[in-house]
Amino acid sequence: MKVLVNPCCEKCHHTASTPCSDYVQCRTEGPLCHDDVSCKQQRQRLMSLILEPDRRNKQILVCNGTGCFSSGSQTLIDLLREGLAARGIDTADVRSTGCHGFCEQGPTVIIEPDKTFYTKVKEEDISEIIEKDILRDEKVERLLYEDPVSGKLAANFETVNLFAKQKRIILDNCGKIDPEEISHYLAKDGYKGLAKAIQTMSPDEVVEEVKKSGLRGRGGAGFPTGLKWSLCRQSEGAKKYVICNADEGDPGAFMDRGVLEGDPHAVIEGMLIGAYAIGADEGYIYCRAEYPLAIDRLRTAIAQAEENGLLGNNILNSGFNFKLKIKAGAGAFVCGEETALIASIEGKRGMPTVRPPYPAVKGLWGKPTNINNVETWANVPYILRNGTDWYTQFGTEKSKGTKIFALTGKVNNTGLVEVPMGITLRDIIFDIGGGIKDGNQFKAVQIGGPSGGCLPEEMLDIKVDYDNLTAAGAMVGSGGLVILDNTTCMVDIARFFLSFTQKESCGKCTPCREGTKRLLEILIRITKGEGKAEDLDTLENLAKVIKRTSLCGLGQTAPNPLLATLRYFRHEYEAHIFEKRCPAHACTALMEYTVDNEKCKRCGQCSKVCPVGCITGDKDTPYVIDTQKCIKCGACLKKCKFNAISLA
Fold first, then answer.
1. Cα separation, 290 vs 280, whole angstroms
2. Count of Cβ atoms closer than 10 Å to residue 249 Cβ
3. Which residues pair with 436 in a beta bridge?
4. Strands (E), 109-180
C-alpha cells in the first residue's frame, strides 16, 4: 500500500464505478467491510507517517507556492531528495507543500518534528541542512528567521511573530500537506464533511447548518452564505450550477491563490457540499489564467477526486452526482462581479448585467446558480465536519469564523495571515506584522483593495469585522491589507487606486466609465499642484453619484478610497490645493530641493551626481540648485553626507 487511497487487500472492491459509502472512513481508519487487523494496522502506519513525523522519520516541508516556486524551490526539493539518496538516508522525507504565507522570506523550509523554520534557502545551503539538521539534529543558525525588531532568532516556526498569533483554520493545511496528494488531505480529515452531509443530512439540513454557522461571503460584500444557498435551492429548475469565484484581481491580494495552491481539495469538498445542498449537479471554478500553478493543482485534485469516486456519478454510493470544470479567465477585474463572471463562462465579453434577476434565480445559461469565492467554499468542510458550535466560537456576534488577509506595504512582516474576526487592526499590524518598517511612523491602513478605504491611526483599535469596517468607511473586501507610513501621500494613494479601477472599468455604464475618469483627472491635477478650491466639493459630489448610479459593484465601490481619504486626511488635500505642498514629500511636482549653506562643506558631490546639471557652485561659491531645471530625482539628497540638501 503506497498511498492512503490504495486498497488494503483484494477484499476491497471500491472503484469510481462501484463506489462505497464508507470510502472515507475506510481509507483513514481501516476497512468496515471485513475484519482484517493487518489492513487497519497498515492504515494507522501510513497515517502516522503523514501526520506524526518524529526524529526517526523527519519531514522536510518545502514551500512550493508561486512565490517560492519562482525563487527556485522546486530545485531545492530535487537537491534535497538527491542529497538524501546519495547519503543513503531513508529516515527523512521531502514534501512539496503549498504556501506557508511568508513569501518575502522565501524559499522557506520547515523541518518536522522540531518545526525548525529556515528562510531564504539557496541551493548551496542544502548540503549543510542535511549534514547538520537531518543527520546531527543541529540547527543551521544563519538560516533561522531573525525578528526585525528584537533581533532574536526564532527557535521554531510557531514562535515567528507572523504565525504565533494567527488562528489558522483555512490555511492550516497550507504549508503542511502536499496539495497534489489526495492521501494527505484525507489524512487531515478531508472529505469527512462531505460524507457527513450526504450520508446523514438532508439538503435542507445542510443549508440550515451553514445558516446557523453565520458564515458570510469572504469575497467582499459579506452576504450570509446560508441565505444565499437557500435562495438558490428554492429557485425552480431541474438544472442548477455552483461556481467558485477564483478571479482574484485586487492589487497585492493573493489569499485565494494561496488556498488553491496549498489546499485545492478543501475548495472542491466545499463545492460538493454546496452542490448537494442546493441541488446542483455541475459546477465551475473560474480562475484567472495568471494563476497557472493554482490551475495545475486544481486539475490534479479534480482528477484524483474523480479517480476515487469523490466527483462524478453516485458519489459515495449516495445517488448524488456532481461534475466540476475549470474555466480560465482572461484577467479582467470586473469578472470578479457575479454577472460578468457568468457572461465570461458563457463565452461572452465579461460585462455585468442589471440585477434582478439575481444569479440564484437566473444565472449560468439561464439556470439558477450559486456563486461563492474560494475562501467561502473552503470554510464549508470545516463547518460540516466540526459543527456550528465549534465554528461560532471564533469571530464576533455578526461576523463568525476567521478571515485571511494579505498583509503588505510598509510593515516588517508581510504575507498571508488568518485571524479570527474581531481582532483589532493594531494586533494585526504591530503584533503579527511586527510594526512599521525602517522605524517610520504608522500613517494609515488601506483595507479591502481598490473597493476599500483608508483608516488612520485613531482607528487602530477598531475590531475587524464586516459591520465595524463598513461603518468606518472601509470594508473587509476580499482581504487586502496595505500598511502605509508617514512617507505616503494620501492624495496619491487615492489616485493610485482610482487609476486601477478606472482602467478596469468595462465601460458599459456611464457613471463608472466617465465618472471615474473625471475623478482621476482632478486627482492628478491636485498631485501636480494645480488643484482648485472647488475641487474638493466636486470630488465628493461626483463620487457619491458614481456610487449611487453605477451598474455593478466595481463602479459602486470605486470611489471608496477617495471618500475615505477625504474623510480622514482632508488636510492633505487642502495642503496640496491651497499651500501647493505635499506633506509627505511624495508628489514629485510639489517637491523643491535647496542647499543649506550652513551645513554644506562644498565637496561638490551633489553637483557630480545631478543628471541635468542644475546644481552649480565651487569651493569659493555657495552651491545653488536651479529649481526650474531640477527634475526632482533626489540623487543629490541621497549623495550628500552632510544633510545639506533640504526637501520642502
1. 28
2. 19
3. 411
4. 109-112, 116-118
Cα(60)–Cα(372) distance, integer angstroms? 34
Assess contact for 501 and 558: CB atoms under 8 A. yes
Among residues 222, 221, 207, 550, which one has the least CA distance to residue 355? Answer: 550
322 DSSP 8-state letter: B
Judged on CB neighbours under 10 Å (0-12, 13-18, 19+), 45 is exposed
**Residue 175 grid coordinates:** 504549508
Task: Count CA atoms closer than 13 A to 453's CA, side-chain side.
Answer: 23
What pLDDT, on the 0 to 100 scale, is given for residue 219? 85
What pLDDT sits at residue 2? 63
Beta bridge partners of 284: 243, 325
Q: Which three cell numbers stand for residue 588?
A: 514629485
| Residues contacting residue 397 through CB under 8 Å, at least 6 positions apart | none
CA–CA gap between residue 91 and residue 110 (Å, rounded): 16
Residues of the chain where predicted confidence (pLDDT) is lower than 70:
1-2
Task: State which amino acid sits at residue 382.
Answer: Y
Angle made by CA atoms 56, 61, 63, in degrees to the nearest 5: 175
Retrieve residue 108's grid coordinates. Answer: 522557506
- Round to whole Å and give the CA distance between 432 and 411: 10
Number of Cα atoms under 13 Å in the Cβ half of residue 183: 17
Cα–Cα dist 487/584, whole Å: 5
Question: Are the C-beta atoms of 346 and 359 separated by less than 8 Å?
Answer: no
| CA-to-CA dists, residue 547 to 191, 202, 551, 563, 566, angstroms | 42, 41, 9, 11, 15
44-78 per-position pLDDT tens digit? 888 888 888 777 789 999 999 999 999 999 999 99
Q: How far is residue 593's CA from residue 616's CA, in Å, rounded to a whole number?
A: 13
Sign, CA dihedral 353-356-357-360, equals positive
pTM across the whole model: 0.93
- Determine whether 486 is exposed, middle or buried from the number of CB atoms within 10 Å of its CB (0-12, 13-18, 19+): middle
Beta bridge partners of 245: 286, 373
The residue type found at 349 is: R
Residue 470, CA distances (Å) to 106, 179, 429, 563 in order: 34, 35, 19, 13
- 581, with CB counted inside 10 A (0-12, 13-18, 19+), is middle
Cβ atoms of 352 and 506 within 8 Å: the answer is: yes
